[in-house]
Write a structure and sequence with these properties.
The structure is a homodimer. Chain A contains ten helices and eight strands. With about 260 residues, chain A is of the alpha/beta class. In chain A, helix 2 links the parallel strand 2 and strand 3. The longest helix of chain A is centred in the C-terminal third of the chain and has 31 residues.
């Protein structure tokens, strides 16, 4: 399978590595800037390009891993002359119908639901992949590529995928925002964030066994107004954290009932 | 060390188990209700009482693990006639000075920073304990009890402890609230929360290696207005989640700068 990777961001970087490790050939990496394209191409023993006109025309699979807002601009130019290949995007919130307007025959969605940073190599073996395709043949190809990297491969409609993505923002990005607030508050008082790691780990492990609503502890679920008020007072200089504390405590308390 | 455990909630249950496993004797468990006292006493091969007058007078260490708001009511009654023992509480946000008014000689704070539920047995070996004591002898005793359960034992002032507790609410309770929101949204659309577990695990693992601010991904940190607006529209029927989404995205975006 001759694959062209369109994008060189966090997701493209991690996906590219996993594809190559699984034995696929990434024949080319496109990025808006040559530096990014070359940086990733080097890791994948591939070739980097930053001019859309230079993207190969003979790849069998084009994997588009760009910021959602870039798709409308890049795709019309890119697809022209490459209509016979299989095209997929990797975005949680972009429906499969985006491909229809380009007169493609073979298209789909290839969504690995995970948090990717360039600085961190992620093991793909249990990453959930959610696939959607224009037909059975296309789905078979995508499933074969996904299962070469992960044992956790599913089909999902565009409608399901947008709720998966929304839920992932809460479970991952927003949980991480809570870690960040925790780190900032500790650092301001000369304390190390490392002290939180056993707690963070147990909080994550716990929801493998208990529903998160049943796993909840702390002042909000006990409605310990005494502690809540002390904490709000400590946040006097952090109006946004204070607002976040009040709102999240209210949500925890109301969900209990 | 003859220990009386005052309280039979989530923390007392887990701490009691760990004390017994470490070879200590919990001679008595007090709870406001006899059912709770007996339930925990049974697990600890101890005796349960629900009448403050029946609490033993000859324990060497009294560990008070009650809701903060119950302390003011219970302690004056409980301490009377037991002033020569070592008294500790387990609360993140209660200062050590609370003991001063009772004319005690030996007192301190014994704070295991972890999320405890009765339904889940937690390994204590890497739980951070934060200790504070009225003197060196008392600190030596508390350190010896804590290190019999955990290899992660520290001293912390009341001032440090209240910031540890506040930060723990963000890193644990609020992160768990984000898991709960994620679970609710998935369940409403017939999707399983299990799909989120690899993502939740990686989000937690990631901050062992990267500062959470550097680990952040997703639409808010990219300021992908297109995705953010789609997500807000999906939350039309969840006004509190919508508010949480907007506020947290704003915090993530502003912290980036």
């Amino acid at each position: 399978m001759k694959i062209a990777l369109i994008g060189a961001g966090n997701l493209a970087t991690n996906l590219g590595r996993a594809l190559v490790e699984a034995g696929h050939v990434v024949c080319q990496v496109y990025s808006r800037t040559q530096v990014s394209a070359d940086a990733l191409a080097l890791k994948l023993e591939s070739r980097g390009v930053s001019d859309l006109a230079e993207v190969v025309t003979d790849a069998q699979l084009y994997i588009v891993a760009l910021k959602d807002s870039a798709l409308g601009e890049v795709l019309p130019i890119l697809i022209k002359g490459r209509e016979y290949a299989l095209w997929v995007h990797t975005a949680g919130s972009v429906p499969i119908s985006i491909w229809a307007e380009y007169g493609l025959k073979h298209y789909g969605v290839f969504y690995p639901m995970q948090t990717f940073s360039k600085a961190r190599e992620v093991s793909f073996s249990d990453i959930p992949f959610f696939l959607e395709a224009s037909g059975k043949m296309e789905m078979d190809i995508l499933r074969s590529v996904a299962t070469s990297m992960s044992r956790n491969v599913h089909e999902a409609s565009s409608e399901q995928r947008r709720y998966l993505h929304l839920s992932a923002v809460f479970a991952c990005n927003f949980a991480n925002a809570m870690y960040t607030a925790s780190a900032r508050l500790l650092e301001e008082h000369g304390l190390s964030f490392d002290a939180m790691l056993p707690l963070i780990d147990e909080t994550a492990r716990k929801v493998h066994a208990l529903h998160p609503a049943d796993a909840q502890t702390g002042p909000a679920v006990r409605y310990d107004r005494n502690v809540i008020d002390k904490h709000l007072a400590l946040l006097a200089d952090h109006p946004l954290y204070r607002e976040l504390y009040e709102l999240t405590s209210r949500i925890i308390h109301e969900e209990k009932d």
